[in-house]
Amino acid sequence: MASTHSGSWDAAATLAARVVRAARAATGLDLAPEEALLRRGSARHGADFQANLAMSLARRLGRDPRELAAQIVRELDVRGLAAPAQIAGPGFINFRLDDAWIAGALAATSSDPHLGAAADHAPRRVVVDYSAPNIAKEMHVGHLRSTIIGDALARVLRFVGDDVIAQNHVGDWGTQFGMLIEELDDSGWSADGAISDLDAFYRRARAHFEADPAFASRARERVVALQAGDPATRAAWRQLVAESHRHFAVVYGLLDVALTPADMAGESSYNDQLPGVVEALASAGLLQPDRGALCVFPEGFRNRDGAPMALIVRKSDGGYGYATTDLAAIRHRVGALGAQRLLYVVGAAQRQHLHMVFATARAAGWLAEGVEAEHVAFGSVLGEDGKVLRSRAGESVKLVDLLHEAITRAGDAIVARSGVADEALARTVGIGAVKYADLSSDRVSDYVFSFERMLALDGNTSVYLQYAHARAAKVLRLAGDGAVAADDADHLLREQHERALGLALLGFGPAVDHVVSTLQPHRLCTYLYEVATAFSAFYESCPILTAGEPRLRAPRLRLTSHTAAVLRTGLDLLGIGAPERL
Ligand code: ARG
Fold it and tell me: CB within 8 A of 461, min separation 6: which ones?
């Protein structure tokens, strides 16, 4: 039977391996586990899983699919795991897991701190580049996705044992600082020494720059002074940076993301390393002059006319830009931080930039063999009109405003339901809803931001999951301490809904592992929704505390407690709270 390590409690993976072994014996073909084509089975046929490989193999070999299925089944050994396989239709091979196996798997995974995840994971050091707002600008919804997705991935990777280093690649350098510092000198700080509205400040500086040539030339001189390290100019720049960090910290606090000042690695932190990047590229023979600038033309990148595309590493005025900084960051992350995997949680629009940077770093030898760099791309947030989300005034929407509105709406809903105001709960529900709406859609697609939909009590929402968790928590509270430990595993899976819930709970490990391999948090959301749905069917049809026979009570409580653990842990991996009451 299954060994003690929890990887073997992945029923689908175990079945797939056995099916493939049998199919190899039956056909002599060397097949990979995915070629078992193992799918969820239909409950109507009493099947938990089905393997669909007989049809495609038969086509390949010019044989009769049903007959081939029968031959595979003859070679198949699923003792201790499932009942003898049944062939259906044109050659589906159906499996029904043994109740005893499910019960054993539930006992093992419920007491495992990882609830069945991460059994075979080889830990790595992973840098996750996420959030990365820009100084002297308010964070907007574009940064919302990066922050939420990056934080969820960091949590999931930490959970499975990776050594995660978050890097907040804040945009804190560039020629715009000349005009911002001059504006600071002119219109200055408000009385309380703060800039209350960063965006308005930025707009004012830009307007000033465009309308006033004297101001513009002072701003240009400021850029030179800043780059030369003039103390007064540097001090003004540092003030601006600090002020922006205060604004970011408010948003991070509201979102409850784990980003700290220690994770800040702004563009400016690479300044000293930029000349070295260019020199190293030159000695590697990768640089080409182009209209006064120095460029790399990484292989495989061509524009619409088929001409090679340039990654500019030194501009014609001698300055360095975004690409050079990203190259320096790669050297730092691999060299100094020892990263084996680099993740960039950045909007899809920067795909080409990042891929050119990766290709250049690879050519320069900074991404050693075995070190992966991946763009974890995401789409835009759309308004209900299907266009990129804007405020009524047509400006991009501020993140803080959105988050506060979510909290307010959640609070109103709580008052309407329970008659009591609860601020902390409103926050957990409201922020959770914003995060979950983002994480539960396929990250590469755009999604429509709708308060109404994200705060709905039913459907695939965080509120639904939190509600299921609170319901389970209430049952456990009423049962009292110690009620769950007393157990009678033989009666664990008598009813259809108990068995379905048990099977769903076993899916936690595979779901988490799937997020690790695909970097798609929505896989975990879809899974948790399934668990919540299975729990509510179980809850409706299987009395727990009032179970007629006392020996039904303990196993049902155990399923309930396992459900609560899966929902709580799963929500936590998404960065969402699971309140005890709702
Ligand atoms: N600050 C950039 C922006 O707002 C994102 C930076 C992403 N990270 C990176 N290493 N380029 O678009």
Answer: 433, 436, 437, 440, 453, 454, 455
